């Protein structure tokens, strides 16, 4: 029998000792860990929540979503080309060898499929519709060897087919290399490289020849695998590859509506100098608005009057295309006005800012003000009391505290004229000669009053000790020695013209990188005609966002643009076979501003010819082609840039970017004493030394200093440096001047002759 005692048992509290459990080596489950921590959250977990770190399942789900999104974008991009209701695949056929006939290749591709429907446009473009692929293709052939024609075709092409030869001595000849270099600099779309004439090589050598062609192509296109075009089935393989390959993005092409002309017609106005250009084609890129401006490469910017739409003249399936577009299925061409330009919201052709010559006007000083300023700049003669026997040189170093109090009162008297001052000086000199002084007899014996001029040391006394013949001989030797080496930006100070006049537009900078320079200072008049963005990046984002929401003709529609105000001489000068390309401009793209471009020279260094600043060049930037006279500079991290053609990219649109030209004046030490030295041959008169006195000096051995005073009348100067100079050192002074590009923009650019024609002409002459 058990009897309960009623005694309470001890229950462990929160402060009970917890001994370490035995490490049995088994894995702890998540449930056991969760029950052990009893809801406590570690600091690491809290930090992860703050950083929004995802768990493993969440990261896996996010990766799946991103992958699916990219797949959908790729599929959407593929389906946006080549379909029944979309624009055809646009293929530019470019030959990289003068021995290849691209038009013969086109005839070969036409025979690829017996069921294919082949049509031609008014501009000579070939349309191939392949029912088995449910895709359609447009092939455009620029004039062989025509650089501008090839560049214009690739401005709108989705794919470029490069033709190379296996039977000729060169896979890519010199003219082909020039064309390929320019195309890659402009922006390369999706590529296909096809080799021809492989069947003309003996069977045992075909594999080796194909490998050699592949090797030559890999130098330019590292990831491209060549295909052959010798058999009938090769043409169908080519079309299948174009329709299934990934489309390479070209930013400047995809962000703007653009069109390749299928039909072009010019209708002159009553005056005859201008007219309306009717361009028909497929809209590509973005939606096209009739109120926007259009740009034709090499011609300029124009406005549209209205926009027409018509049935697709090159359908894949005529009945299906009509049903999807909502049009009737009859064979007649249906043309209707889609939109008409509204003058209230249409973009203006104004490209330059209005010039106001009276803006910022200020009054010119009068003759009296100029005379007063000249008198204030003249050296003032002052009276000093100095001990007897003091020379003029020593008197120049006497401090002003030794001046007589009466003299100070006389100097401060506003009513005293210059004539009274001269009379007072004469009286004081006469009194000193008689031994009479207001300060007493003792002071009269010890001091005398003399008249000195504030101008430093005695120049005549210094010149008497100079050997001018030695000066000229030494200067001649130094000039001859410097011709053996190159000193960047270093020039000789002219003897005939004062340096302060020759370099009056230059200034000194203590630090080329950090010294301030007002970008709005002393701007040329042409700068008032250009536009400047308060924030270019912000404006760019807003314009690109608004362009996606533009209403008008959608991509894939076949429309006709009526472009008015086109000069007739441009249409008359157009070459046959040159593709006509039309780009629609975004807002503000017609306005003039200043472009900063980073360039890199092409070709080997030994073949590069020097190009001077302000020499006229032809620029291909995006869809534009124009002439201009640029200035070149070294690209540095600072806000100012010094003097130094080629492929590159646009750095910014900023008129405030300062391009400074540097000149270096050099001098040589004549006498050296510790940290001070007498420098000569930098200037040749004391006025120039005084003018450039605030500018910092440097030496080729790294010393820095400044000008202390002028010595003599031949440009010698006393300088102080931060350390001991060496006799072989050279003293330099850097001067900078801002340079501006000339207003030489010219949008009308004539095409150069064909590169292949030049080669064929040379062969005939040989």
From TrEMBL:
Chain segments annotated as transmembrane: none
Comp. bias (Acidic residues): 402-423
Region (Disordered): 1-67, 306-443
UniProt GO MF annotations: GTP binding; GTPase activity; U3 snoRNA binding
Basic residues composition bias: residue spans: 19-30
GO cellular component: nucleolus; preribosome, small subunit precursor
Family matches, as InterPro entries: AARP2CN, Bms1/Tsr1, BMS1_TSR1_C, G_Bms1/Tsr1_dom
Residue intervals of the Bms1-type G domain: 87-248
Annotated keywords: Nucleus, Ribosome biogenesis
A GO biological-process term: endonucleolytic cleavage of tricistronic rRNA transcript (SSU-rRNA, 5.8S rRNA, LSU-rRNA)
SMART domains for the chain: AARP2CN, DUF663
Presence of keyword Nucleus: yes
Compositional bias per record (Basic and acidic residues), positions renumbered to this chain: 1-11, 309-326
Localization terms from the record: Nucleus, Nucleolus
Record bears the keyword Nucleus: yes
Source organism, top-level taxon: Eukaryota
Family: Belongs to the TRAFAC class translation factor GTPase superfamily. Bms1-like GTPase family. TSR1 subfamily.
Chain's role: Required during maturation of the 40S ribosomal subunit in the nucleolus.
Entry protein name: Pre-rRNA-processing protein TSR1 homolog
Organism listed in the record: Timema bartmani
